[in-house]
Amino acid sequence: MMIDNNCGKEKVWVPNPEKGWINGDLIKEIPGEGWLVRDENGKEIKIEKDELRMQNPVIQEGIDDMTSLSHLHEAAVIHNLIKRYEINSIYTYTGSILIAINPYTKLPIYSKEMIESFCDQPVSKLAPHVYSIAESAYREMLNFQKNQSILVSGESGAGKTETTKFLLQYFAAMGEKGNGVNTSLISEEDIVEGNNIETQVIKSTPILEAFGNSKTLRNDNSSRFGKFIEIHFDKIKGTIVGAKLETYLLEKSRIVKPPENERGYHIFYQLIKGFNNSCCLKNSSNNNKDEDSSSSSNNNIDDLKSLLKCKASDFNYLISSGCDSIDGVDDSQVFIKTENALKVMGLSNDELIGIYKILLSILHIGNIEFEKGKEEDSSIIKYGNSSFGESFSDDDAGGYNPLEISCKLLGCSVDSLKSTFCSRKMKAGNESYTINHTVEQASQARDSLSMFLYSRLFDWLVVRINQSIDKIGTEKKDNSFLFIGILDIYGFESFESNSYEQFTINYANEKLQNQFNHQIFKLEQLEYEKEKIDWSYIEFSDNQECIDLIEKKPLGILSILDEESQFPKSTPSTLCTKLYNNHSKSKNFEKPRFSQTHFIIDHYAGKVEYDTNLFLEKNKDFIISEQVSALESSNWKFLTNLFQILSKKMNGGGGTSGGGGAGGNKASSSAAGKSTFKFTSVSSQFKESLNSLMTTINSTNPHYIRCIKPNTEKRANLFDNVMVLHQLRCSGVIEQLRISRSGYPSRLVYDNFIKRYKLIVAKDFKNDDDSNESKEWNSILKETDLNSSNGGTNNQIELKRKGAELMINKLSIDISSVQFGLTKLFFKSGIIANLELLRSQTMINSATFIQKIWRGYTDRKAYTSTKHSSIYFQSLIRSYLQQLEYNSMVEENSAIHLQSLIRTNELEKQFNQLLSTTIHFQSLLRRLEDSKEFNTLMDRIKKIVKIQSLWRSNLAKKQLKLLKAEAKSLTNVVAEKNKLASKLGDIQSKLDMESQLAQKIKNENEQLSSQFSNIQIEKEKLQKDFGNINLEKEELLLKYSALESEYHQYKQQNELIISKLKQHINDLEEKQHQHSYKNNEVVGNTSFEGSTTTNNGVTSPPKSSPASPIRNSINSNSDTTISGSSDDSIDNTDSLILSPKQHKGEDRKRNHEISSISPPRSRETIGHDDDDNNVDVIPRRQFNELEKEYKELKQMDETHKQYIESLKLQITQLEEKVKKSSSHPRSLLPGIPSNINDSPKVVYTKSSITNDNSSSHHQQQQQQHNISPSNSITSTTSPINMMDSNIKSLSYKDFTNSQEIDAQQQLHQYHLNNGTNPATSTTNGSGNPLSQSSPTGSDKHIQQSTISDLVSALNFNNCQLESGKYLVDLIIKNHDSIVSKYVPSEMGGIPEPAFILSRCFLKNIYDVDATVIGTPNSTNSGGGSGTGVLDPIETNVNILIYFCDKVEEVIYRDPKSNCSALCYWFSNFYTLFNIMETYNQDTKDQLSLNDQDKALIEKLKITLQTMIVKAHKNVVKNITDYIQPILHKSLNDTTSEIDFMDPITNYLNQIQISLSLENCYINNNLCKLLFEQLFSFINAMIFNEILLRKDLCCLRSSIPIKMNISELEHWVKLHHGKEWSSSVCDKLRLLKEVVYILMIDKTQLQNDELRDEICPTLSIAQLKQLLTMYSPDVDSFEDPIPLEILTSLMDSPKYNPDENILLDLSKIFTLKFINSNQTLSSSTSSENDLMATINLNALESVQYACDDLVSNIVKKNIEIVSLNNQKSIKK
């Protein structure tokens, strides 16, 4: 298959003088003349074959590296840049060069998220950007340990300065990352400010802009000097350790004479307009208040104030150009920024004032005017009638005198400076004489002084900046650091009129271009050598001849210029004559036809004609020694120091070349010799500094950025083709393309080449299946399909190379146009374009063939369908016709049949009529015959009947006669009568019997009805009685409950009174015995049994009468658990701590236990229960007993009252004893708390009860006689019984054992321990008491210390502060083992430290009745000695703050702390914060706090918030430090598919972040917040990577990303089936939309409705960036994204060009405190992030075992008390 380089009708580029290049169509080839082309206007043009410029394939439009273009020429480059500029893609690669087009608008592509995305990424994967060049330089510096340089060039207004700023911004961020700062998680406000090195490097830019930039016609902020910034980095860490700045060729002529419609340097205008806002004025006002302030400094400020009441129009230097402002720029505001930058650099107020005074003196020097003197060729200073200084004339009665003002500002003599303007001294041998200056020469001397002052000020500023940012020093440069140099210098310039500045600029660019050419050629060589291909014949263009023309000695242009500059009578003509004579034969030098003062140099970018009229003047840098001497003799210290610093710098060899005046400094101090004018050539200085710069650059690895100015109007979205093309030529881009084009610019790896173009040769190999070549191709094709990556083993690469060779042979490509490298194919320019055309044509042909096959298939299918339809239709027609014929036949047969039926009917009718007539006639005949026969028969019968009647008559008559005879006989009559009477009697008897039986049945029925009515009445009565009984039962129960509650109320009141009385007694006894004891511990227990009499004669209340059976049964059951007044029974018991559920509602359950106990029921009751659904009816007798018991309780209350009266009497007796007695009886020691009888609950566990009834009865008796409830209560509340004469030492165990638990609570505990129901376990089914079976043996009672005991232990001996801190230390000391400890509660597990601290300290802060009793030996510090009363709020707040500080010190600062531990402590602080907030809400109306207490509580709240923020940051840092590298590694690993799900989920499973937080239910919001933030972080990271990386923004990468996202969502829902799982997964919605877009047809996105449906979250700007970065896979048949889609998106009203397309990672991990006025971090969207509901009652009911803590705290308190007592004894 032979490739024709111009096959088909192709597009070409046609030259156009206005647009540069326009579209054209290739028509035909004209032999011997070239090609005939038709342009877009329809005009036909002939183009030579060598000048023909082919267009590239559509797939290569807008590509980001123009060396990948198939046709590499100017037209293709311009077209590609235009296409990219239209979609705001301002950066484009040309090989290693980055082309940056000024957009003239702000683009959101320089954010910190963009910096983070470019960090540590290969340049090939990222879109072109200035950050990619910075990243490449930074990584190469660290990886290869070699210095780097970045050369930024371009003409004025192209954006060089802004590009340099972005480079510095990136390097500053990299320096921060080297210091361990995660820049992705800090906001813009958190970026480091101040005087660190990164900030100082960045702040040097506005200073240099103010003093070295000015407004020009081309640029409002044009740099008028070149600069080279070295950023010094640490070799290992990559942190910024310093910087150094060098400047080149300051344009000094702009100081005294700015070009028309341009400005001088910005600082002059900023000073005039912004000095009133200067910080110097504010500082001076503050200094005026200080008595020791310097008066001279204030005088300087006053002078400046008066002199700066002026305008720009008051100064000659500022008004001469006719421009003094910039549109859209406020010089006063810029001045503030400049001054702030100077302050950052470390300049003091005096130095700032000195700068302002020099600037102002320069302006006033410019106002000095001259006029002719009396002598010939002389001049004098013009006084009065000055054209300038109108603002100063009114203030001075003598008129405005600029010379005097300048001298006053500079601190030098007016006479010494005045003489230097109007005359100069000359020496001839030993004689000297004075020569007068003309007016013109005097003006030159004046301007020379101004330029000298400004250039030295500029040089001094550079020195001061270097002193500030050069932290290491030049002496360690070669060993201690690496550097990246940034060169910001003019680009090549070629105007209509080119002067000395353009000559020096172009000379510098020639040198840089020479270095650039060598570098590009070197890179090409390295690439070819790496791939082992032949490159020796590649041509290389060298501009060394042009450089030699300019600088080579002795006849170079610079040498001739310096020579002519030293001759007094030299002119531009003489200069040009020498140039013509020496260089007329040079190919790079030309003489213009019509000018004797111009010459032409053929530079690399084109020919430039220079005008020499100002060459000689601008090359001279005259320094008048008298002026220098006058300045050095100034009495102003700042000015003299300035010259001294510069002199030392110059003599030390480290001077800057700024201003080109460095050489003058060396001679200025010793200028008393030969001439007062010291000649210094600007060109020689520049050449020297340029050579030094080139030496530095050549020692580095250079990178290139070419800034392009798109138009002269400074408008956005305007592209001037011709202007851009000119800049590309001048910047060396076209030359670089020529170098690339001369070699093999198109390069493809073998794998990509085979995948993309295999379809072109597939048909050829298929047609020859049996050949060896085809078999080999098939095997290679399978191998390349199996190995999709670009790499592989050497055998695989060799196999792919063979496949590429087979393809090249099949494609018939000229072997001279192809080179086979080790891993790549190298093609000459145009080959790839032709391959793309062939691929496109093959795809079109294939599509056509597929369409043909498809159309054939569809047509055949349609024909077959039509044929079948036709046959079917014909059959239907035939069927229809046959149906018609059949119907006709049916009708005919039917007609015949009908006719036959009709005829049959007619004949039948006739037959029937005849038949009926015949029959009728026959019947008439028969009737007639029968009638005759009947009549005969009737006559015969009549005769027979008559005979018979006569016979019967005779017989009747005979019978009558016989009857009459019988009637006459009486006997027969009587017998008959009797017979009838007897029959009647029988019947009557039967009737009587039946009547009696009926009456009996009736009576029985009536009796049964009556009985039934009685039963109904009785039933109703019984039901009514039963209801009344139930009501009565309920009333009695209510009455009993009321009586019992009233009893408890009386009981509590009495206990309160007794407690107060006991306290009063204790106080009196302590006063009486206050110095009778030296020990602090009391040993021994006091038993409280029955009514006893103490040594003091106090009698306890008498025993109450025996309780009721119910009470006895309760006491008998509880006796087994209560019997614990002795130590032995307590020590031998088992331990079982009550759970929170057991404690909850104990009082309510105990009250229910009494009411649930019922007596034995009678047999009648049981039987009645069986009849009526077993309804239990309690007898009234039981309630009578309850009433009786209540009366007994009332009697007990009366007894208590008597006991109180006895106590009062005892108090009176004790008071009398205190007054009379000189000795003091023993009392309780201060170590026993005052609330000893309100001690914490002691929890007892499993106790056994025997089944023996006698044992139970014995216990009942013992309960009745010894441990009645009243006696028990009374005994425990009496402190008098504790005052035994043998008191020794009171330990904490004795202290807790002296406490007693209520009987009802013990009964409830008994039921809980034995697993029985208190409501049903008392009685069995028969009403007998139920005895629980248990193992036989002695009862055991073991006591464990709970949280209440810990609270009491902390109060023990009033050492709460020290013991509290000791408790915190105990908790923190074992933090590794405490991580997994959670206290069970109704709210789930509560972290142990938070639970303990909230119960022990936080609760005390909000306890309304909380008081801390201070003993005479207590102190404010919580110790056991001293005086005063402790503030409970202050003490508890201090302990909690101590806890926070301790956790931060031990946990947060420990680098070994893992995420699980951090989450645990995060949960602790979160729980404490929520408990505190709940206390605040519950007690806000009850607490009355003073201002000090409120401040303490607020301080604690802020501390907890701060700790939550710190904990959150530590957790986030731990998570992100692990997950971020996983994501980076997964997305950057080219050897395997993207897989970040498994490492992330494995990590989360290992640290168990969810379990560490979810053990406590109140952490649900916290856990949700962390997971949402984590998934948002993953979403943002991957989303930002996709938007900026070409290798991820494709279909091939979207599939594994989608799979990972789906698996991650599945993991969350599977492991965390919470209601917030969906909200967590929803954080990935933006990423899911992006992945979906990558997998669908992108043309759908042009439709607004479809776009809103596909990606509702994605913004238009983000979508445009996504489509811009998208590129089809190598072997994909998908077309590139049409630029029309991108432009349509940019035209959408929703498109915001200023939008930051990347997601801000720093705003993800934030917290919000709703109920706080403190703003500790930026808020999130959810208002419930840190709020949870806390049930304080449930929390306070939890009893938690803490024996070790209690024992340790008690020991600590005893140690504290002992230590304090020892101290007091010593005192």
Short structural summary:
The protein is of the alpha+beta class and 1771 residues long.
Q: Provide the structure class.
A: alpha+beta
Q: Report the average pLDDT across residues.
A: 75
Report the major sheet: 7 strands, mixed
Overall number of strands:
28
Residue share in helix: 55-70%
Which regions contain 5 or more consecutive residues with pLDDT less than 50? Answer: 1-8, 188-192, 288-295, 653-677, 1075-1178, 1221-1308, 1313-1342, 1411-1429, 1715-1728
Mind telling me the C-alpha Rg? 59 Å
Oligomerization: single chain
Instruction: Sum up the overall morphology in one term.
Output: flat
Please indicate the percent range of residues in DSSP E strands (runs of 2 or more).
Answer: 5-15%
Measured between the Cα atoms of the first and last residue, the distance is: 115 Å
Count of helices? 61
Strands across the major sheet, in which order?
Answer: 6-7-23-8-17-11-12
Describe the secondary structure blueprint for this structure.
Blueprint: E1 11-16, E2 20-30, E3 34-39, E4 44-47, E5 53-54, H1 74-86, E6 91-94, E7 97-101, H2 112-118, H3 130-144, E8 148-153, H4 160-178, H5 197-212, E9 213-214, E10 222-223, E11 226-234, E12 240-248, H6 253-256, H7 266-274, H8 279-288, H9 295-307, H10 316-319, H11 331-344, H12 349-366, E13 369-372, E14 379-382, H13 390-393, H14 402-410, H15 414-422, E15 423-428, E16 431-436, H16 439-469, H17 477-480, E17 481-488, H18 500-531, H19 544-551, H20 557-565, H21 572-583, E18 589-590, E19 598-603, E20 606-611, H22 615-619, E21 623-624, H23 625-632, H24 637-651, H25 662-668, E22 677-678, H26 682-698, E23 701-708, H27 721-730, H28 733-742, E24 746-749, H29 750-767, H30 772-786, H31 794-811, E25 818-820, E26 824-827, H32 831-967, H33 971-1072, H34 1109-1122, H35 1127-1131, H36 1140-1143, H37 1146-1155, H38 1163-1171, H39 1180-1220, H40 1253-1266, H41 1269-1277, H42 1292-1297, H43 1303-1314, H44 1347-1355, H45 1360-1373, H46 1375-1378, E27 1382-1383, E28 1390-1391, H47 1392-1405, H48 1432-1452, H49 1459-1483, H50 1491-1532, H51 1541-1551, H52 1553-1558, ...
Parallel strand pairs: 7-23, 8-17, 8-23
Antiparallel strand pairs: 1-2, 1-5, 2-3, 3-4, 6-7, 9-10, 11-12, 11-17, 13-14, 15-16, 18-19, 19-20, 21-22, 24-26, 25-26, 27-28
